[in-house]
Structure to design on (491 residues):
């Protein structure tokens, strides 16, 4: 799979797509592939404050529990309620099945994240281990 | 095969196979419940005891009654420490008049072999570690017998559950095939020579013959969820060197009418004293998945026990767990909590096994 170039990526395998002052967050194809069958997604409620680099939720597959790390600081404005009942959508369409939308607190934080090309290189190295 | 590998007790083992091969833990699990799956379980260990006093030796080191075994019959049993806790659980096969094969777990292979050797020195019987001589492949599911029958001249339908047979298989002579498994499903476990070329060839022949049955190669992930639905114990989880037979609820495999076996004296005392904790089945009533090691809380939030194994159950489509709790919390229907990321999530004690295969399948 190629990684969409319209967004940025973390080394913890989240993606963030920015639109003005707001952003959409999800997990990458590499993340869903590593986790396997996803059966549970837990994200904070609308209004919650996320701090960059801190955990803000959990994704569980049949075999593993994985934390979600905030790619940027901000306030949750929307959560993808569909994932509560259909978490397998993250496996089927990881770059479409978003988890939360945010109002960004400090858009400059995004400068520290990886581009699609750099992320692709990063996961190629991870997979090689 | 492009499987996701993990190191398991020093073995590189597949956790799950890729979706392109019909894999993924849920798909693999469902294949075994509704069709057939095959597992490479070559990490399992094998110990052979043979000689005039082989039966006496097996009786001394195992809690079930091996004197009840006819030639060709097998039984679930366990080896115990003098404290009545577990060295390992084991399947004891009687292969001949004075010959027994113990199939043991991967993580405990060396420990088990040393234990058997050291505790059977007083008997006239040879103890051999055959773990590196055999590759074990498990063919499991309601269509397992039909699939394996395509590859062997042995009459598999005539083999009862927990009996073994021998026959031609994939061009090999005299292959041991036992109607046993670790999935709570019908099926066979076969023992083939361990050289890589032979085992790979047989594995591929089973996969090829299984095409018409929709066979799916299965990894350790599905093996764990399948055995959990069937409440089959896993060493280091439901049984260990700190858990005794009564706590684990394995009473029916422990024959106290046998005059002597390692662990018996302690078990007699433990029985008189009464178990203070017991293994129960839990089903989550709140959103959340109980995982191995999570704390179990009473309704007031006090810690009362711990989860030994917990997972989503792919066939039952529920989040289930096994846990040790004090006896007063063991009644079916008791409401308790499991601590998940600092929060108590509701769960209820349910009957086990969680899954029982339909009778007609065997």
């Amino acid at each position: 799979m190629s990684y969409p170039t319209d967004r940025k990526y973390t080394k913890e395998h989240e993606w963030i797509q920015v639109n003005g002052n707001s952003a959409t967050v999800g997990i990458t194809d590499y993340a869903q592939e590593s986790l396997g069958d996803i059966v549970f997604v837990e994200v904070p409620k609308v209004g919650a404050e996320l701090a960059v680099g801190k955990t803000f939720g959990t994704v569980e597959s049949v075999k593993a529990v994985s934390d979600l790390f905030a790619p940027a600081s901000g306030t949750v404005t929307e959560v993808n309620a569909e994932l509560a009942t259909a978490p397998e959508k993250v496996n089927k369409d990881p770059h479409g099945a978003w988890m939360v939308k945010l109002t960004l607190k400090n858009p400059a934080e995004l400068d520290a994240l990886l581009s699609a090309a750099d992320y692709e290189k990063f996961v190629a190295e991870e997979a090689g281990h | 095969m492009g499987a996701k590998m993990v190191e398991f007790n020093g073995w590189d083992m597949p956790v799950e196979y890729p979706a392109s091969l019909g894999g993924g833990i849920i798909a693999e699990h469902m294949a075994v419940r509704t069709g057939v799956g095959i597992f490479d379980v070559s990490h399992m260990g094998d110990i052979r005891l043979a000689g005039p006093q082989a039966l006496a030796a097996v009786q001394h080191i195992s809690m079930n009654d091996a004197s009840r075994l006819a030639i060709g019959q097998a039984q679930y049993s366990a080896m115990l420490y003098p404290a009545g806790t577990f060295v390992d659980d084991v399947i004891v096969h009687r292969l001949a008049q004075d010959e027994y094969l113990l199939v043991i777990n991967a993580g405990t292979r060396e420990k088990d072999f040393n234990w058997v050797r050291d505790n059977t020195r007083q008997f006239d019987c040879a103890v051999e570690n055959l773990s590196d001589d055999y590759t074990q492949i498990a063919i499991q599911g309601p269509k397992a017998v039909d699939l394996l029958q395509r590859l062997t001249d042995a009459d598999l339908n005539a083999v009862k559950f927990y009996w073994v047979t021998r026959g031609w298989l994939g061009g090999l002579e005299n292959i041991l095939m036992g109607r046993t498994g670790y999935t709570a499903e019908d099926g066979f476990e076969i023992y083939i020579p361990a050289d890589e070329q032979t085992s790979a060839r047989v594995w591929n022949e089973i996969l090829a013959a299984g095409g018409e049955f929709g066979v799916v190669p299965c990894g350790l992930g599905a093996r764990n969820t399948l055995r959990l639905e069937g409440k089959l114990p896993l060493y280091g989880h439901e049984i260990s060197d700190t858990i005794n037979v009564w706590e684990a609820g394995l009473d029916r495999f422990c024959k106290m009418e046998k005059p002597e076996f390692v662990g018996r004296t302690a078990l007699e005392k433990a029985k008189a004293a009464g178990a203070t904790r017991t293994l129960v089945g839990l089903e989550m009533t709140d959103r959340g998945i109980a995982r191995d090691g999570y704390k179990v809380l009473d309704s007031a939030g006090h810690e009362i026990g711990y989860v030994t194994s917990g997972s989503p159950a792919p066939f039952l489509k529920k989040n289930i767990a096994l846990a040790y709790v004090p006896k007063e919390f063991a009644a079916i229907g008791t409401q308790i909590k499991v601590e998940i990321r600092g929060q108590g999530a509701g769960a209820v004690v349910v009957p086990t096994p969680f899954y029982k295969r339909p009778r007609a399948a065997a």
In short: Helices of chain B lie at 25-34, 54-61, 109-119, 144-149, 196-209, 220-229, 245-248, 264-273. The CA atoms of residues 21 and 216 of chain B lie 7 Å apart.
